[in-house]
Amino acid sequence: MADTAVTVTDMTIDAFTTQTNATAIVHANTHTIDVSGDTRKLLLHFRNTTASEKVFTVVAPTDNPAALRAPLGNVTVALAAGNSNETAAFAVVESARFAHTDGKVRVTVASDTTGWIRAYRLPKEG
Predict the structure, then answer these.
(1) H and E: helices and strands count for the chain
(2) Is there a domain that residue 103 lies in?
(3) Which member of 2, 14, 52, 58 has the greatest number of CB atoms within 10 A?
(4) Structural domain tally of the chain?
């Protein structure tokens, strides 16, 4: 299984951030978000455009002893058919649960899924 890279867009406090180009889903691939191990304030945005319900999964690592909360497991969301109505979901993830040893967060999707993923880093306060 190949990787599809999802780019992180940094947001700025007290300013507008233009919506980024989404990363198209390649259902046979794992989608990776390179956060260098720091998922602080990482917001993921998922969109299903398939004509049927599809599951999106943020995958907890099995190979990273530093991910102390990884035993809590994956987080999944089932998005309703999105071919005629927008079906989207958001997730904020933490490194203690989802950072793999290579510093990336991984997302998988059900077979035949179409849609996209975006990743945003929310700004630090003040």
Answers:
(1) 1, 10
(2) yes
(3) 58
(4) 1
